[in-house]
Predict the structure.
Amino acid sequence: MRTQLVLTQRGVEAAKPKAKRYGKRDGTVPGLRLVVFPSGEKTYALFTRVNGRLINHKIGSATVLGLASARKEARRKLEEISGGQDPRETRREAKRAESETVEVVTGRFIERYVKPKNKSWKEIQRKFDVEVLPHWGKRPISSITQRDVIELLDSIVDRGGMGTQANRVLASIRRLFNWSIERGLVSQSPTDRVKAPVPETPRDRVLSDSELALILRAADIVGHPFGPYFKILILTGTRREEVAGMRWSELDPDLTTWTIPRERVKNGIEHTIPLAPWARSIVGTLPRIAGSGGFAFTVNGRNSISGYSKAKRELDAAISSLNGGIPIASWRIHDLRRTFATGLARLGVQLPVVEKLLNHTSGSFAGVAGVYQRHNFSDEKRHALERWGTHVADLVSDHRSPNVVRLETRA
């Protein structure tokens, strides 16, 4: 019977390459071999059977691993195999984990799901870039636990500032993991049973006529492009991204009508807005910059305006300057839309017309009414916006006139 020689570290180092690849068996660990390639490269490999099939599992480079370490790793693999594991599948799972990091999966999620469905996808991406990826980016998405989620949210809350940011981050993470479950990337979401860290109540802030007058006057101080931008927000009641993304191609030649295509509207329904005289004059004074992509509101001639927070800070500074150093308390850009709707109601505009101007499909137009009611309310919308435009213009000329005081918002 042929005696199996025991491989030694000196023997590993002394093994010379030949014209063809060859192997030297180790007499200590069954199946372990030193494989020598014609190039001079040397590796350790484990030759054994898994479910009746002979496999060749690479242990590692002989220039990195010593013989003792190679034997230890080979024994570990043999124990896994005896326990029913397949090292090839383990290796494949490890490679999948490397390619399915939170950073990689988030990128796919933004491109495949968020961008086609959400007009505010840049804000969602910003939340991931700022709040999530610095902590989890390089980790396999399957490794994220409920505790990881809670610790991340706690860190956002503990940082101070706007507590609702943690709620928004949780909502984005939850959708990411639900999407990942649909894709078979994870089997369970770590956000299950995680509650919003900060309680929220719906905002009901409506600006008074005096406050609205201050904003309109401060908009003149801010100047182009955000001065006219804030005025159009007030006069049309549209969302901030809808105004910022306005294109000349969406406007009639005489600027009497602005039609926002369904691709740019939150509910995916084309929205037609009659422009009152003041709104037409504001849009008519906007410069048409060549190469701007057709954007009406642009600074660099290439993209639509952004940086709403900075613009609001500049507007608030102008308001304080006009108001003896006193700012308008606790208001946000979206409050202009609520103020618009409330102001129309106070002027006697019927609710269905207000809902059409807001491009809402709920309320008066929900259910059967939304299916069978096809009137577009174009005349009613134009009349309502003309009344609102006249009222807003009066605020700027004299926000203490008797006509305005009658409509003043009361606390």
Observations:
- The chain has three domains: 9-96, 102-182, 209-405.
- The first helix runs from residue 9 to 14.
- The first strand starts at residue 22 and ends at 25.
- Residues 209-405 form a domain with the hpI Integrase; Chain A fold (CATH 1.10.443.10).
